[in-house]
Specification:
Layout lengths: L2 E2 L4 H7 L38 H4 L15 E7 L4 E9 L2 E10 L3 E5 L7 E6 L6 E6 L4 E7 L8 E3 L2 H27 L7 H27 L4 H8 L17 H10 L17 H12 L5 H12 L6 H14 L10 H12 L10 H15 L11 E3 L5 E3 L7 E7 L4 H17 L4 E7 L4 H11 L5 E4 L17 E5 L5 E4 L3 H15 L3
Parallel strand pairs: 2-8, 12-13, 13-14
Antiparallel strand pairs: 1-4, 2-5, 3-4, 3-6, 6-7, 8-9, 10-11, 12-15, 15-16
Helix pairs in contact: 3-4, 8-10, 10-11
């Protein structure tokens, strides 16, 4: 199977004029797209294999157990279609792959083979490499679709596939509502919130949204087991009434909490087919990146709330766990103390009894790395380190009497260290009188280059130390890339890490103000 990169996943979903997905996976009404025929979806012409973790791919193309899938015979007839190669593009979460390719002839495209397609959402890419037609493929893979090149949605007729009949009926319904939604949105901008005119337009908007909601609920009720219902329902946002405080004011914090708690309530985690649509990956990105405060504690709570729901759903458990770990991989995120998220996920979910997709060697390596990180998380006591200075004298972090300590881990040959070290020297001269000292630990080098670098940078602090074995710093202050900076407060608690020198002042001033030290 070959994966293809589509210029950006969100662009595909937002620009898709034959009905794309919004940020949480909900199918959006059709809209006009400049320079394309109505109903066209832009796609790129380039095809290449992106870097995708293998754990994302495991079992991603296998049908769910006990599903009886028939061999496909799908005919698509498009009036006005020129000849050329057409591709059937499938997906797993946010990764696209070419499932099949055929030549169009006389306006007809026929996909027929002796192996079923994996149930999910597919895009039929037409010969111009820009225009696509969406289709849902489930157990019954024999159906026909007929339409016109200049009116792909409204002219669509489907036979033999209830899912695609529902899909295009919904596209047409949503398209019929869109002009009124646009008109009301424009009117709303003309009035100020709180005015009678604003309230009236808002009420009209609510009625239009309710009509859409009622339409979908009727479809869901009449087709409870269909792929369309599972897919479309999973993308719906929670519907909540405002939550009020005792004084009658709106409690936005409680509303957001409840919205987030119910965010996954419409998703049927027993339905693996949803992983072959964009709805799950879109919801996951929104849940983690937008609805969760970007602090380690909040991210850990959100991650556990979600992952714990799917511990008995192997494909979802695997996908969610891997995605969150990779999203907050310490070397690939700007989140301060992303190690806290990484450690939480590895220690709780990448265990020998849970991480079925990894062998014992991989799990051991992950657990060991998480252990090494776990000793130096923000909020924990900084571990005392003792190592020798250039004269052989042992120097300890806890021997330093200044209120604040900058633990600086560096290497003489490190390019970024060459940039940051002179800045730290200047910072030290300014802040040493204010009760700040530096404990500089050199890593992965020999004594000669280390001592030369101390002279080259004119490092003024006494605590320059080196342990050639690195034993003194093992599982103390974790470092992936040099330089690594930790800040210890007067209690020797780690209050910041993963910093650049120009960020240290902000951290110190904030803590000093809290303690009344400035």
């Amino acid at each position: 199977m070959r994966y293809i990169t589509i210029f950006t996943f969100l662009s595909l979903l937002f620009l898709c004029s034959c009905g794309g997905e919004n940020a949480n996976g909900e199918t959006m009404p059709a809209t006009a797209t400049p320079d394309l025929e109505p109903g066209a979806t832009p796609l790129p012409t380039s095809v290449k294999t992106p870097s995708v973790p293998t754990s994302y791919k495991l079992a991603s193309v296998a049908p769910a157990p006990n599903r009886k899938l028939e061999n496909p015979h799908i005919e698509v007839e498009i009036e006005g279609l020129a000849g050329g190669q057409c591709s059937l593009i499938g997906m797993y979460t946010d990764q696209f792959y070419r499932a099949d390719s055929v030549m169009a002839a006389g306006g007809k495209i026929v996909f027929k083979r002796n192996q079923p397609y994996t149930p999910g959402l597919f895009y039929l890419m037409l010969p111009d490499k820009k225009t696509t037609i969406q289709m849902l493929i489930d157990d019954d893979q024999t159906f026909t679709m007929k339409t016109k090149m200049n009116n792909l949605i409204n002219a669509m007729q489907v036979q033999g596939s209830k899912d695609n009949q529902l899909l295009y009926q919904t596209f047409k319904f949503e398209a019929s509502q869109q002009p009124e939604f646009n008109r009301l949105a424009a009117r709303l901008q003309a009035f100020s919130p709180g005015t009678p005119e604003y309230a009236q337009v808002k009420a009209e908007q609510n009625e239009l949204s309710k009509a859409r909601f009622d339409y979908l609920q009727k479809v869901f009720k009449e087709n409870p087991t269909s792929l369309f219902t599972s897919f479309k329902e999973a993308g719906q946002n929670p519907v909540l009434e405002p939550i009020y405080n005792e004084d009658g004011s709106v409690n936005n914090e409680a509303f957001v909490y409840e919205y987030k708690r119910l965010f996954w309530s419409n998703v049927n985690f027993s339905d693996d087919r949803l992983l072959n649509t964009p709805v799950i990956s879109n919801k996951l990105k929104r849940y983690i990146d937008e609805l969760t405060a970007q602090t380690p504690d909040s991210i850990k709570a959100s991650a556990s709330f979600l992952v714990d729901q799917v511990l008995d759903k192997p494909k979802y458990f695997q996908y969610f766990s891997n995605w969150i770990v990779l999203h907050y991989e310490p070397t690939k995120t700007s989140l301060m103390d992303s190690e806290a998220v990484y450690v939480h996920m590895i220690q709780n979910y990448f265990t020998y009894d849970r991480a079925f997709w990894s062998d014992s060697t991989e799990i051991h390596a992950l657990q060991l790395r998480a252990y090494e990180m776990s000793q130096s998380l923000v909020g924990q006591k900084g571990v005392n380190v003792q190592a020798a200075d250039p004269n052989g004298k042992m120097r300890s972090i806890y021997d330093i009497k200044d209120n604040y300590i900058i633990v600086y881990m560096w290497n003489p040959d490190c390019e970024h260290c060459a940039e940051q070290t002179p800045q730290l020297v200047n910072f030290y001269h300014q802040w040493k009188p204010k009760g700040v000292d530096v404990y500089a630990i050199v890593v992965n080098t020999e004594p000669g280059p280390w001592k030369q670098a101390i002279k080259r940078y004119n490092m003024p602090w006494e605590n320059n130390v080196h342990d050639p074995t690195n034993r003194a710093i093992y599982a103390t202050y974790f470092v992936d890339n040099t330089p690594e900076i930790y800040v210890l407060d007067p209690d020797r608690t780690i209050i910041a890490k993963n910093l650049k020198v120009d960020q240290i002042q902000t951290i110190l001033e904030r803590d000093m103000k809290k303690r009344g030290l400035m």
